[in-house]
Amino acid sequence: MQITDSKVLPYRHEGDFYFSYGVKAFQQKRFDKAEKWFKKALELKPKHPLYLSQLSVLYTEIGQYHQANDLLQELVNHHGQAYPDCFYLLANNYAHLGLFYEAKKYGNQYLELEEDGDFKDEVVRLLGMLDQLSAEEYEEDDFDIDSMDEIMIHQETAFYHLEHEEWDEAIEILEEMMTVYPEYFSAKHEYAYALFRKGDQEEAITLEEAWFNQDPSNLHSRLNLVYFYYEYGKISEFNELLPTLFNVYPAYEPQKLKVAMTFARVNENEESLRRFQQVSRHHVSNYLSYYYWYAKVLDANGMCEKSEQIWKEGINKHPSLQSFS
């Protein structure tokens, strides 16, 4: 008997089939395979809460906090407050991004929904840590609290473009922040850095020197100018300013990282290595630049095996880092 095409029925696996393969790959830390299977499951059931949350957990595991939060927000949009654990996951991700106001907001939402939930202790500890870190990060800034949500969205977007060296996109966001939120001082220093990296070096130096003259104690200006002077060949200015960094030891982890990377950029590799060793990896794992510069500094100091380990870890968390090699 001849079977015609009309008698052949297409067979489609249910989402759980693909999802189970994703879970197995995730447990084996084969994150690229796990992502593939989870996405296939979501193709069949795009709003499935377990599929969305598990893929978000994968992205958190590899440091892709922006993508993780996109999925969690989608889950909340589809299912409301039926899955309160999402608010804990959002709080955790925003904390890793350094977006403390958002992290506290979602942490408090979790506690409102789950007074004795599975993650209660973790959230309470997280909120306590955020209270301390928020005071350190924003001690120089005076924001209208009603504007904080918008500032955080802009800050997160600018951070993404800066980390991926997308200078035009970063400059556009930072220009808007400087106009709408002039009290957010960090934006102008990030803007100068993006300008310099894009190639507008003289303008970047002029801007940063003006800001430094207004506030010689500002760490952002000092770090930018040390790097600018080194790259631009203003050797006397560089030699005068560089020694002032050796006694600077910030308490806030992202600032520690910026100091370590600045020493790396100006080829002060021994000092840079000391500074990297004082940075808590847990708090800066969302930075592609952490892995890039730490690996380079380790290699420059003859620690090739450790350098390769850090580089592989960075690729695992941030696959786009491969394009930086």
Give a brief description:
71% of the residues lie in helices and 0% in strands.
3D structure, described in words:
The protein has helices at residues 15-27, 31-44, 49-61, 65-79, 85-97, 100-113, 120-137, 148-163, 167-180, 186-198, 201-214, 219-232, 235-241, 253-265, 269-276, 281-284, 288-300, 304-317. The chain has 325 residues and is mainly α. It has two domains: 13-133, Alpha Horseshoe (Serine Threonine Protein Phosphatase 5, Tetratricopeptide repeat), CATH 1.25.40.10; 167-324, Alpha Horseshoe (Serine Threonine Protein Phosphatase 5, Tetratricopeptide repeat), CATH 1.25.40.10. It is globular and about 65 Å long. The relative contact order is 0.06. The model is unreliable at 1-12 and 138-143 (pLDDT under 50). This is Tetratricopeptide repeat protein. InterPro entries: TPR-like_helical_dom_sf, TPR_rpt, Ycf3. Keywords: Repeat, TPR repeat. TPR repeats lie at residues 15-48. It holds the Pfam family TPR_16.
